[in-house]
Design a protein that fits this description.
single chain; Rossmann fold; three-stranded mixed sheet
């Protein structure tokens, strides 16, 4: 068995579904079900004998430890995190609690559980911490891509909280010997992504004929990683990664935000034409967010060379799969874009 935290969120739910699709090893899934955690993401495995869901705050160390002792998972895969930069700017406290205090609590529970295991189980145990490329800061146009040795320079409350959690994981390995693995991924996209993020936000607005808000000049660059590729990479790191190591996971698909939005408009015009005309007419440049990093890029040669992982999707193929999923699942979007979500969008973009 493995234990997954945050397994009802976007990446976590995709990972749980992917894990059960590729084998029969059970998953114990912990999630607090905050605004971005959604049990509907797991509806297809509601009655799966290999999946057990527990609603739980990872800061509850004693309860987590009790579950570890009861189920004796061979690995913990830690997705649980507050992850939206804009939300971290408006309310950083939740990010400090979940990303730093929660990770600390989970590490301590894992350390106590691991320390009591028989030697064979102790040697096989892994703690895999899922992090972000945003911990490295911002790149200039000609700067080399982020490598695992790039110094940390986080620029937002979100990235600072994730950087702190990365440092805790590293320290628990070097100080206590806990067999940890850390992955730092680029921007994920794909099915089940909460619609506050760029791609699902633009899909929803475009289908509704609403403005497509693009920060600043739209030339901020991100490396885009299809979530299915990310799940495959995590499975591979868990299988063969060296304890104490960090692995960068990227899609090798650098694009400006405005190019992403224009490609989305083109694809939606192809798949679901709008009688009012091309959806590019809806693109609206809005005031940039504070401290907006200019460019992220991932050097993923380490995971390719050591573990043989490469992304299977191009941005074009992954985006087409993503748009098709959102077009096929309007009810999912409608049910989670509640009044609270609408209030958040108004708060974040209304004054821009």
């Amino acid at each position: 068995m493995i234990l997954v935290t945050g397994g009802a969120g976007f990446i976590g739910a995709n990972f749980v579904l992917d894990w059960l699709a590729h084998g029969d090893e059970p998953v114990l899934n912990l999630d607090l079900l905050t605004y971005a955690g959604n049990l509907e993401n797991l509806a297809s495995i509601e009655n799966h004998p290999g999946h057990r869901f527990v609603r739980l705050d990872i800061c509850e160390r004693d309860t987590v430890l009790g579950l570890l002792r009861e189920h004796r998972p061979r690995a913990i895969v830690h997705f649980a995190a507050e992850s939206h930069v804009d939300r971290s700017i408006h309310g950083p406290a939740a990010f400090i609690r979940t990303n730093i205090e929660g990770s600390f609590s989970l590490l301590e529970a894992a350390r106590e559980h691991w320390g009591a295991l028989p030697e064979a189980e102790k040697a096989a145990f892994r703690f895999l911490h899922v992090s972000t490329d945003e911990v490295y800061g911002s790149l200039g146009p000609a700067d080399p891509a982020f490598a695992e040795t790039t110094p940390y320079q986080p620029n937002s409350p979100y990235s600072a909280s994730k950087a702190a959690s990365d440092h805790l994981v590293r320290a628990w390995h070097h100080t206590y010997g806990l067999p940890t693995l850390t992955t730092n991924c680029s921007n994920n996209y794909g099915p089940l992504q909460f619609p506050e993020k760029l791609i699902p936000l633009m899909i929803g607005n475009a289908l509704a004929g609403k403005p497509l808000p693009v920060y600043g000049d739209g030339l901020n660059v991100r490396d885009w990683l299809y979530v299915g590729d990310h799940c495959a990479a995590i499975r591979r790191v868990l299988q063969a990664g060296r304890p104490g190591e960090t692995y960068n996971i990227g899609g090798n698909q650098e694009m400006t935000n405005i190019a992403v939005v224009r490609e989305l408009c083109r694809l939606l015009d192809e798949l679901r034409p709008d009688p009012a005309g091309p959806r590019s007419r809806l693109i609206t440049h809005v005031r940039d967010r504070p401290g907006h990093d200019r460019r992220y890029a991932i050097d993923a040669r380490k995971i390719a060379g050591e573990l043989g992982w490469q992304p299977a999707e191009t941005f074009a193929s992954g985006l087409r799969r993503t748009v098709a999923w959102y077009l096929d699942n309007p009810g999912w979007v409608e049910r989670i874009t509640s009044g609270r979500y609408t209030e958040w969008i108004s708060r974040n973009y209304g004054a821009r």
